[in-house]
Amino acid sequence: MRDFNALFKEYTCNLNDDQVKESVSKLLSEKATANATTEVYKTCFNLIDLTSLNTSDSTSSIEAFVDKVNAFPGEFPDMPSVAAICVYPSFAKTVKERLKFPLGIAAVSAGFPSSQTFLEVKIAETAMAVSDGASEIDVVISVGKFLEGNYEELYEELDELKATCRDAHLKVILETGALVSAENIKKASLIAMAAGADFIKTSTGKMSPAATLEAAYVMCGAIKEFYNKTGQKVGFKPAGGISTTEDAVKYYTIVKEVLGDEWLNNKLFRFGASRLANNLLSDIYGKTVSYF
Ligand SMILES: O=C[C@H](O)COP(=O)(O)O
């Protein structure tokens, strides 16, 4: 039995929500403008997990989605690629077979977006997605277990899913909108990282509020403290409701200021977004682009 209260005591967990809000507002008012550049927009594009998580997705719609990614370098030769394509697990194979060049294949899994199913089902779904070609697995924590203080079961579940991922990277979604307080977000970040998360991710995009700048600030702070204590670099993925270039620049600024330049690449920083890519392209080219 792990002592999670001892773990929380090792870190700064008694966070005040108003103070977090103030710190974020100060940081952005001082630092964000300098990052509103074409170079940063291009970097942000290269951080995107280009997402299609629709009830209406089908093999043919996902094939068409992948075809756009395949044709992108020909259409936009001066742009980097997105980092990955993110789909429901049953489409991992479609993406793998259709992609014409190596790219991350992220599958949401383990009862996404509610996490409300049997652990055996979560493990089977994850194993199948990995065997179908997913190189990244995005799972949601059991928010209910967290809120009732059942940290042990939450940890065990993530630990088993991490083992199931084998070489695939595990991204753990906290669903910060359901955790509500900065203190909860910090504690959930620590449990996810202790269980072996390669990335911690804010939200599923399936509930409101989705990603917030305050949640991002707290999670980046948790990643930094975890790195200082363990030497392990965990990635950060804000996701859900991030659609404008201005949003992207704000999240970029938080990561840059809290975690440093080392995190400003797609090994350690992703945007989970279904609508951001066209807006970044429009701001890079100075005209409306509706490619994706
Ligand atoms: O993981 C990615 C999110 O589901 C994307 O959310 P979004 O559709 O609001 O961009």
TrEMBL record:
Q: Which CDD domains match?
A: DeoC (cd00959)
- Give a yes or no for keyword Coiled coil in this entry: yes
Which controlled-vocabulary keywords does the entry list?
Coiled coil, Lyase, Schiff base
Which terms does the UniProt entry file under GO BP? carbohydrate catabolic process; deoxyribonucleotide catabolic process
Q: Which SUPFAM superfamilies match?
A: Aldolase
Q: Which reactions appear under catalytic activity for this entry?
A: 2-deoxy-D-ribose 5-phosphate = D-glyceraldehyde 3-phosphate + acetaldehyde
* Coiled-coil region(s): 144-171
The molecular function terms of the Gene Ontology recorded here are: deoxyribose-phosphate aldolase activity
Give a yes or no for keyword Phosphoprotein in this entry: no
Q: In which pathway does it act?
A: Carbohydrate degradation; 2-deoxy-D-ribose 1-phosphate degradation; D-glyceraldehyde 3-phosphate and acetaldehyde from 2-deoxy-alpha-D-ribose 1-phosphate: step 2/2
Q: Which PANTHER family match?
A: DEOXYRIBOSE-PHOSPHATE ALDOLASE (PTHR10889)
Q: Which family does it belong to?
A: Belongs to the DeoC/FbaB aldolase family. DeoC type 2 subfamily.
Q: What is this protein called?
A: Deoxyribose-phosphate aldolase
- Specify the species: Paludibacter jiangxiensis
